[in-house]
Every structure is written in C-alpha cells, then in structure tokens.
Amino acid sequence: MSTIRNLSRRTFVKSIGLASGGLILACNTSIFSDKEKEEIKNLTEFNPNLFVQLNSDGSLILVASRSEMGNGVRTSLPSVIADEMEADWKMVKIQQAVGDKKYGDQNTDGSRSIRYLYETMRQMGATVKAMLITAAAQTWNVPESECVAENHFIVHTSGKKIGFGDLVEKAKTLEVPTEVALKSPKDFKYIGKHLRSVDAENYVNGSAVFGLDKRLPNMKFVAIERCPVTFGTVKSFDKTEALKVAGVEAVIEIPRITKPFGALGGVAVIASNTWAAFKGKEALKIAWDFGDNKSYNSSEFMDSMTKNVHKQGKVAKDIGSISKAFKNADKIIESTYQLPHLAHTPMEVPNAVAWVQGETCEVWAPTQAPQRSREEVASYLNTSTDNVTINVTLLGGGFGRKSKPDYIVEAAIISKEVNAPVQVVWTREDDVKHDYFHTVSAQYMKASLDKNGNVTGWLHRFALPSITSTFQPGVDYAAGWEISSASNVPFDIKNMKIEVGQAPAHVRIGWLRSVINIPHGYSINVFADELAAAANKDPLEFRLNLIGEDRIEETEDPIKYNTARLKNVLKIAAKNAEWGKELPEGHAYGLAVHYSFYSYVASVVEVSVINNKVKVHNVYTAIDCGTVVNKDTVKAQMEGSAVFGMSLAYYGKITAKEGAIEQSNFNDFKMIRIHEAPNVHVEIVESTERPTGVGEPGVPVIAPAIINAIYKATGKRYYNLPLSDYGLV
Amino acid sequence: MITLNVNGEKQTIDVAPEMPLLWAIRDIVGLTGTKYGCGIGLCGSCKVLMDGSPVQSCMIPVSAAEGKSIITIEGESENLQLLQQSWVELNVAQCGFCQPGQLIAAAALLDKNENPTEEEINEAMIGNICRCGTYQRIKKAIYHTVELKNKSVS
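Output (structure tokens, whole complex):
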C-alpha cells in the first residue's frame, strides 16, 4: 500500500449529501507539477473536481470528464476510480460531464487524459473506499483495520459483509478523509487489464448518439456556404434559387468572428431537413471578397519554404561546432523533405446543435473542448458562461479537429438569428476545404560521418507555418514547442545545430493527431536511415549506436527522456519482427522510433514493392507508455495509428490554388481501406512508470518506417510524401 | 407521399422523390443509426440493406426504395445480430461512427457467403472507410462470426 503524502496540505475534499439519497464526492486535488499547472492554466483555470455518485441500491455513477472519440476514455478513467474503490464494474454507469471548469481541464487532446488524471482518479476511488470502510466499521462497532473492501462489499475478518449501497446513509454523515492509502499495483483488478468499451453495444446497434444524431422538437437543419479562400467575406448574395428548394425556410448571412475559434462566416441555409439545407446551399449565388489569402498557391509556397531551408535560419540550438565537424568529415550527407498540408476528416463531420433562448444557450456537440466551446459561445452571445450549457455527445472521430469549436459558434449564431433550435451540419466538402489544416513543411538536413561511419555533425533546418499563427496572426516562425521535437533528438552527436526558417500561414493551421511529430518524426527517422546506408551499416545497429549510451536527457520537461526506454522499444519491435530474417522476394523491413507525448514508440514495417506498387504487410509496434490503464485500448490505438500513419504516407495531401483548397472529399483526399490495411502486432512494455500518451505517439513512426522499407526493398530513396505522387500506391 | 418498408415497418413520408434514402431515414423516419459520411457514395457509412443487397443510401433516391425492404443497423438480418455480438466481443469499434455501415456490409457478405476468404472480405468491405483504422479487428470479427456459426451447426 502506498500513501499519498502531504495530501492534507494540497487537497480539499468534501462530501455533499444528495436529494436523491446518493453519496457524492467532490474531490479537489492538486497533484500536478508546477510546470503542468502552468500548462493547464493557459487553457483553463486549474480546479479539478470529479464526481462519484454511489446510490443506496449500489449503483455507481462515475463521471467521465473527457470526450470519447475512440480513445476509450469513457471506459479507462472511470475504471481507475472503480479499481481503487473495489467497485464491481457491472454496477457502474457513466455520466458524461458537461463543459465546466469544476471538472478541471477537459480538453481531450495532447494524449494527456490518463497522464493528467490517473492519480486524481485513484484518489477519488480510494477516498470513497476509505469512507465506506469507516461506515462499515462504525456500523459493526469494530476497528477499521479489520475491514476490507471487496467487489462492492465491505468485508469483516469475521466473514460478515455489507454492500456498498447499504453503507450510503452512514457514509454521507462522515468527514471526508484527507489522507488515503492507494492500492499496490499488484492488486489492480481493472487497471492494466483488458476492459471492453462501455459503449461497445451502442456502437453496433445504432443507438450511440453522436452529435449528428441529436434531435430536438422543431429543430432546423442548417448548411453554410463559406468563402473558398480562408478569411474571405461575402460581398453580396442571391438567395432566390435556394429559397425555391422544397424544405428551405430561410437564408441568412452570418458574420465572420475574427477569433481563433470564431465562425468563418458565410451564407446559411435554414431548412426542415439536412438534404434541403445542402441543396439550398448548392443553389446559392455568392460574390466573395477573397481577401489577401487569394495569393496562396501551395506549390509555389513549397518552393519558397524550400529556399528558406537552404539558407541560414534562426538558430534554435547550437552545440559543439557543426562547421568544424563538416570540415573534417569523411562523408557529408544532405537531404530535403517536403510534406504537404493534411486534413483531419473524422468520419463524423463537424456539426452542432444549439438552442439560444434569451440569455441562455444549450449546445449538444461532438467536441474535444467543452470548456473552450462554452467560453466561445458565451463570448459571442455576450453572456456569462453560467448561461451556456455544453452537452458533450460521442464524437465520430476527432483527431484534433473537434478541439476547435468554430462550428459550435456557428450554431449559436444561427439559433439566435432564427430563434429556434438548429443543427449545423458541415458537408464532407466543407470539412475538407475549411479545416484547421495540419501544417505544410520543408526540411533540410545535413550530417557528417567520420571514417568509421559515426555521425559527427547534425544540422536540421525546417520551415513550417506555426499553429501559433491561428492565435496570433502574422506569426511566421515555428513556436518553441514546435521546435523541441527536433531539438530534443536523442542522438549522441557532439555537434548539432537546429535552425528554423520563415513560413507565413495562409490557411488556418491546427493540431492534428501527433502534430509536429509528423514532420519531425519523419525527417529524423528517414535521415537516420540514409546515414546508416551511407555508413554501410545495418539500420537497427546503426540507430542503437546513434542513440548511444543509456542516459536521462536533460530537457525542460518535468518528465525526463530516457534513452534506455527508447532503445528498448526499438529492440522489442525488431525482435518481434525477427529483424534480419530472410523475407520473400520484393519484401523488406524498415524501422522508425520516436518519442512523443512522453511515450516511446518503435515500429518495424514489412513492405513489398512489386511492379512499382507498395504494399504494407505487417507492422510490429512496441510502445512504452508507462503504467497502462487499459491494455486493449493501447493496443487498439497502436493498430489505428498504423492505419492513420499509412493514410498520410500513401495519400495525405491538401493543396491550394489561388487560396482555394483543391481537394473536396474521399475521392481526392483518400484514406486507407481494408484491402490496404496491414496486420499490426503490438507489444506494450510492462512498466510502473507514470502513465504517458497513447492516442498520438503511434502515428509519427509509420510513414518514415515505410519509406525506409521501400529503400531497403528497391534501393530507391523517396523524400517527400505522399507516395501517391510517385505512383507507388 | 412515399411508402417505405424500413425494418419491417411501413413508413409513409411526405418528401421530394429525389431526396436520398439516407436523409429520409435519418431526418424523416428518425432512425439515426445510418450515418452521413461523404454524401457521394465513397465511404459506406450510410449503408443499408435494400432487398438484401448493401447499398449506399446517400446515392439512392427515396423513390427508388419504394416497395423494397430496407434493413438498417437498427433492424435484423440473418447475420447482423451475430456480427454485432462478435463486434462487441472483439471490441472492434473505436469511435464507432462508421461501424453501422461496416456491419451492414459484413452482414450482406455473410448472408450470401457463409465462409468468405480474405479476398472476398476485402472485396465486400472495400467501400467502407474507418478513419480510426479498425480494419484488422473488423476482419477478425467476421472470421469469428463464421466460426461461431460453424460451431453452432456442428
């Protein structure tokens, strides 16, 4: 048993009697490091609360404060409470939290739900258990030390037992303990095991309610035509033809809200069903003022960014002397990599139901950011956040798109205008064309090798429009956190320089699953493979040597980077793939390893290239994400990450011409389909380290591992993505 | 007025004949298990069984579905319920949004082919996109269903 120290100093816990006869615990804890507090403070006020409601019939309601988008969080976080509580999982019902700061940070992104909330959830459960033990001991008039909790009962050493529900009345009258003991990990019942999704049945019988499935009486359906060029505005419009469409009731212009998550503005068609709204939208005639971004041509932009990385940039890191290393080199290797914009395209398009009534607004939406949504809606309506309720539905995928509540603001604007509940539905074309796009990038790398094939100098220079530009228009260099994944490269190289080139943004730039690790994980892993080839060494041995001795890297982060753990996942992936074994003709292995979201992931990918067509057969992934809450979820996330990484490697490319996005739907922004999907073999490292990210860190390794495997199979090196540009898929 | 037969129930609805079946099912009949994903027949999220064949309901005018038997994810087919069980058992779904369409495609496959090969599964399921990437488990769940059926027969 471990005890949380100083809990009384840092913790405020109280019990609140409920009219329903249940016992609710509100736990206000501070278990984060100062650095993490700072990080959270930037997004929301730091004040985490979580609710457990135990009813006298024994039923247990656990609140899920994070959004469910396939990440399994409605199952994993509550299961931690249930485990510490010794609750029977069959008695648990999940209640989705509305957006409210009292729950602490609810932003479901950055692969941090478990990382931030694991310890809090444990304390929540342990506190309830302690109170139930006290209640039973008092009821029986025996010492607490003679009582233990077991599967929804408190059991006395004499063998008598009493159900959790029967202890509710007594427990309600007790003081909440300020110091509670946590279970020993060896006694975990749910944590670290496979637990099926609490929504599994609803997903397969059609009863799961996503945002698109929300219905209200007299609800109107809305489609919006937005300017093809980002931030362009309506000059004039003709609604005559749109109004002729059966079911169309009104057409109104909506303003652009010039905030990071404000509405883009445009012309809205309000109708009695979705299809009428879509048809009405098609029938609109709009004259646009395209604005400054009309000059954006993504291919010219790539050329200019590429020029920028071929000259001196802003220096972000400089150790040793690369000029000396390059001068004394036996061999110099140089490469340039170009990666395009990507769109998120979750299967469920952005959508939201809003109902503005006087000063108040109620929203039902698939959102990764319920508190941000609440603030944006309140700000638009010029009302207090207390007047805005954000109900979080299930999300049909998120990947970062649904962190940005522009579509929720749109629904609030229109509901207010038409004085009715409305559901705004983006068409797939709207989604592809008006996304907060994953950035576009050019990267230049140069390295020196000595006679023995050791890397003596490393220059990494990159240019990409920063996500910061969405918050501070005009920012045209990568932000510090967008540099760290390049500057924290874990290679034991004495002379190293990281430089950043200029790149202004011409579309909304946003975070997409694994974010900056997509370009950096790609370039670093491909370039390391090129260096191995130049040194005439096996990529695995070369990489392990490049990472070097076991050491803890001194980064600014509270969680330190351990190269032993990095090498370990690489070795496991290689072992599981039987690295070095003979493969069928045309087949080859490629590897990549990357640290992101504080987790270590390596993948070995088996590719065949036959008749100039690439096929990925197997992916062997190893992940070390510290303590695992739900093994099946981690496994599923690695399986899904492999496919997500393949989609971007094969097909991912968003381009712009005269400011307008050229792609529109799954015909020209393609996804991996079942016949292309590989067998993914996952090994999860057993660990008692603190839990780290899972949803994103499986993605960055996939594309570079494929490129490296293609090189091994064909001897040809491809530098840019996607592979469809080369006719390889 | 158009009369639809959805999951064995007659539904008389007043809509334009060219309205895609998808929107008639979702917005008029009120069954929301059938999903909108792309609107142009590329993703399979909207699949329903029409007289036993899987169709993309976003591409079928509602008038063309009149007089036909429409089975949605809320309905029943020879194999749909068994497949749903396998899907739950193998925890196939991640976000779950595309899974109704996946299940309809899989049900249509097994209704016609009791023991499909991997190639036949690929062919039957190629029209269904899963952005979460659950394909591997979808295949396993189809094989698992076939095994369950074979066991119950023998």
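The CA atoms of residues 206 and 213 of chain A lie 10 Å apart.
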